[in-house]
Amino acid sequence: AQSVTQLGSHVSVSEGALVLLRCNYSSSVPPYLFWYVQYPNQGLQLLLKYTTGATLVKGINGFEAEFKKSETSFHLTKPSAHMSDAAEYFCAVSDRGNQGGKLIFGQGTELSVKP
Amino acid sequence: DTGVSQDPRHKITKRGQNVTFRCDPISEHNRLYWYRQTLGQGPEFLTYFQNEAQLEKSRLLSDRFSAERPKGSFSTLEIQRTEQGDSAMYLCASSLAGVNYEQYFGPGTRLTVT
User: Among A36, A42, A102, whose Cβ lies nearest the Cβ of B48?
Assistant: First the structure.
């Protein structure tokens, strides 16, 4: 069964510093990969996705992620953190064999940004 | 395109009561998903539909839970004889199968069982 591991339930960075949120998946076949962001008491918003093609994908709000098959990873980065980036971030995967289908989520990483 | 909507946004109920939530997906989307999210956790899959057909149900979906999508548009999720452990955020998402693979989420319904 697929699973997703997000290393670090809480990450704190200073404004302007690099953001790195880690995600590893467990699957025999590389799945579709997603990062979502959730602000308090709201639904999830898609930041970026990897389905095929270029392994470095760019998303909204200056975020990007790189799919590394050999490491089964899909880490999320942003060169310079902004106060508005403070939120909960979820990595998720879905099965290629079902045109997507259900998402399996990691436990989430709460990002705090210090002024 | 108004996005995915859910109603109600908040529901407080007493243990043992039945509750029903509604989800309206993005109009052209043929897939509709239900997830449950408890505090500090990632969303957990409950069930999903393609058009009217319920294609998959999680083991989390006990006999007290039932979901429908009768006309392939909106969906309802009913919980019978609610328990305190049912307290959670219930999220709905929709997608267009075979075209793109991301799911678009609604704002959620927060259920509190007292």
Answer: A102
